[in-house]
Write a structure and sequence with these properties.
This protein has eight helices and 19 strands. The protein is α+β, with helices and mostly antiparallel strands.
Length: 331
């Protein structure tokens, strides 16, 4: 089942069911007004939405309309919680090596995770707007994220997959010129993690078939900046921790409410020559280590970022994040 949120009904939008080929949609009228409402009552609402999805897949349904990703908000425009890990060792090791730092000693034992900005989440075609670009070091981070149901405190990694409700893509924008001085103060990210964006469609695990093994998602994740390939990544490879382990880590001392978004951090594969990078900072780190200086610039106003993931059959799994970087003007 594929679900999306369209720009109707206020800040939380209106929930729609999307056809498997992502060309048609129908509003979930009378079932759940918003994505969060569906997640809050998933045991009752989920099966009804699945029936509607099956009908849509079988042929035309009453009141269906063409699905246009440009009218989509993020599947969860205001998520209650966004918890982001750093589960790909190659990303962490290369970026830190370029600045003469090392990976934490317990990196392979305990997941790194922080609580990020979740209100709002940008839609797939909404521009990232900032008041300045000089010195900010605007960077993208290509991620896969899961959206949970209610998760009990102390859940084990073995139990955790049953709480995954939806999967989608996320671009975790990072301001590389702001993050270092923030972290040296010892109190974590605030301004350095400005906002994130989501793909137009969120997908239930069963819809993904063999691509989702309950813990990691496999496929071809293409990342482009201004039409040029930055990375062609395989999220199912080279992860130190999977999503089941990240859920268990996040729920160690608290319950997670339905609608919690959990990421595994910037994607990175060990074979950089073949796969490229999931963020500019990593590409710059490779340049620094190989040539003694970084050449690729960070994002500037007017630049365009595109992210899309494809299954083994070549079809898009979630639709594309396709955004421009623009100057912010106060309303």
């Amino acid at each position: 089942m594929k679900l999306a949120t369209v720009k109707e009904g206020g800040r939380d939008g209106t929930l729609v069911v999307v056809s498997p080929d992502m060309t048609r949609a129908v509003r979930a009228t009378g079932v759940a007004a918003t994505m969060q409402a569906a997640l809050d009552d998933w045991d009752r609402v989920g099966p009804i939405l699945h029936v509607l999805s099956d009908r849509l897949a079988a042929g035309p349904v009453e009141r269906e309309f063409p699905f246009d990703p440009t009218i989509a908000l993020a599947p969860l425009p205001r998520a209650y919680q966004f918890l982001d890990g750093s589960a790909y060792y190659h990303h962490m090791s290369v970026v830190r090596a370029a600045r003469g730092a090392k990976v934490p000693d317990d990196f392979f034992q305990v997941p790194l995770m922080y609580q990020g900005v979740s209100d709002p989440m940008l839609g797939p075609a909404a521009p990232l707007r900032l008041t300045e670009d000089e010195g900010l070091g605007i960077d993208l981070e290509a991620e896969v994220v899961i959206i949970t149901g209610d998760v009990p405190m102390g859940v084990s990694a073995e139990e955790a997959p049953r709480y995954v409700r939806l999967i989608t893509l996320l671009n975790d924008y990072s301001l590389r010129g702001v993050i270092p001085p923030e972290l040296t103060r010892g109190f974590g990210f605030l301004q350095g993690k400005c906002i994130s964006s989501m793909a137009p469609v969120a997908v239930t695990p069963d819809e993904l078939g063999a691509a989702w093994d309950g813990r990691l998602l496999s496929g071809r994740y293409l990342v482009e900046v201004n039409g040029k390939r930055l990375g062609e990544l395989e999220p199912g490879h080279d992860a130190t921790f999977n999503y089941a382990q990240l859920i268990a880590h996040a729920a160690r001392t608290r319950e997670l409410r339905a609608g919690t978004v959990i990421g595994a951090g910037a994607l990175a594969n060990a074979d950089h020559e073949r796969c490229g990078s999931g963020c500019i900072a990593e590409e710059r780190a490779h340049e620094q280590l190989k040539h003694g200086a970084a050449a690729m610039p960070y994002l500037r106003f007017g630049d365009r970022v595109r992210m899309e993931m494809f299954g083994s059959d070549g079809r898009s799994l979630f639709g594309a994040i396709d955004q421009k970087i623009e100057r912010y003007h106060r309303p």
